[in-house]
Amino acid sequence: MDDAWICGRLGEDESWQLGAVNPPVYETSLFTFPTAGALTEGLSAEDENYVYSRGTNPTVDVLQRKLAALERAERAKCFGSGMGAISATISSLVSAGDHVIVLGAVYGPTTQFLRYLEKFGVSHTTVHADNPAALDSAVKPTTRLLYLESPSYMRYGIIDIRAFTAWARGRGITTVMDNTWSTPIFQKPLTMGVDLVVHSLSKYIGGHSDLVGGVVAGPARLVRPIAQTEYQLLGAALSAHEASKAIKGLRTLPLRMRAHQERGLEVAEFLAGHPAVRAVNHPGLPSHPGHALARTQMTGFSSVFSVELGTEDLATVARFVDGLRHFRTGVSWGGFESLVNAPALTTQESVRATMGIPLGLVRLSVGLEDASALVADLAGALETS
User: Fold this and answer.
1) What SS3 state is found at 78?
2) Are the CB atoms for 143 and 122 separated by under 8 Å?
């Protein structure tokens, strides 16, 4: 199926929609049954039947069908946040005494959750993605999960997805990958051997900075237990209203991602040629060390990347950030607006050191504003900092 058709039409022609051009928003907490027997039958498979919207909801189902199709998955389950999806997915795959390998830098709260699991006897080891041999040293008889992001968090390095998933599969280890950066439009990890894919819907998929949500997608044998247990018990349900906004976001996702790519590369190319910039970490640039590999795994590039300023002075970093006018200071990304975030100003030094983030690194999310205005904004801030 064509991705544009999936985003715009899949699941939207059901008879219960009565020809409405927008899927109805089922803002109801529960669904009733004609008999006690029917209720009992519904409860026996609550992850598939409409019983209580903490479990299933028709509007959310439309979104889930679209996301599963986009990722080439059998099934998808949506959550009330990206971390809801991530924490439920990891929890479903590990038990006390198990071990997790984290490949490269991943989303900060994901690492925090893995540290949280230590009190339940789940340990983890972080392995640098540029040292595959370290995997063999890190693996244990109790290793159950390999968790990764590609491009990686903050430094946007490219991981050889096929090679690492093959390594894990040969050892009976499940792989989970965060695909938020690329979206299913530009990268489909399940087709490269990944077992489960997670996303924050709050970013590009929502696209308008007006919703919080998450999703896990993959084979039914892995997603269904999450839907039956962790989803139900942890209570991180996505509301019908939030789902309807994500559905509308999906309709323009292919168009928006092309526009983000175009503007992001224009800004990145400008910064790569600026004397005040030490490095630009954007895998879409031919100068990026992972560019050739990225071309074999991805069909495009989003517009979130980092730059490393030619300074180790915190005050200079702050002046650069404060000198921007079109780029607002914020922690998320993926909407219309352009954003800037300097980890040195918001993250403990010990945490930055562990993640390999230099003091002068600044993350940019290029939005959908005119690229020439964004370039002029950055040029002015670099000159005055």
Assistant:
1) strand
2) no
Token pair belonging to 105: 């830098």
Nearest one of 339, 338, 329 to 367, comparing CA atoms: 338
**Arithmetic mean of pLDDT, 124-143:** 89
Residue 128: band (very low, low, confident or very high) from pLDDT cuts 50, 70, 90? confident
Going by C-alpha positions, the residue among 158, 162, 198 that lies closest to residue 180 is: 198
Please give the share of the chain, as a percent, with pLDDT higher than 70. 98
Whether pLDDT at 314 is above 80 = yes
- Reference 156, options 267, 282, 277; nearest CA is 282
Residue 111, sorted as left (phi over 0), alpha (psi -120 to 50) or beta, turns out to be alpha
What ranges do the domains of the chain cover? 3-249, 253-384
End-to-end CA distance of the chain: 49
What value does the mean pLDDT take over residues 155-167? 95
3-249 fold = Aspartate Aminotransferase; domain 2 (3.40.640)
Please state which CATH class domain 253-384 belongs to: alpha beta
Whether 281 contacts 155, CB under 8 Å? yes
Torsion of CA 278, 281, 283, 288, to 10 degrees: 30
CA distance 26 to 20: 13
Whether the predicted pLDDT of 80 surpasses 90: yes
Catalytic positions, written as ranges: 54, 107, 178, 203
Mean pLDDT, rounded, for 309-328: 94
Q: Which helix (H) or strand (E) holds 145?
A: strand 143-149
Point out which residues pair with 307 in neighbouring strands.
280, 362
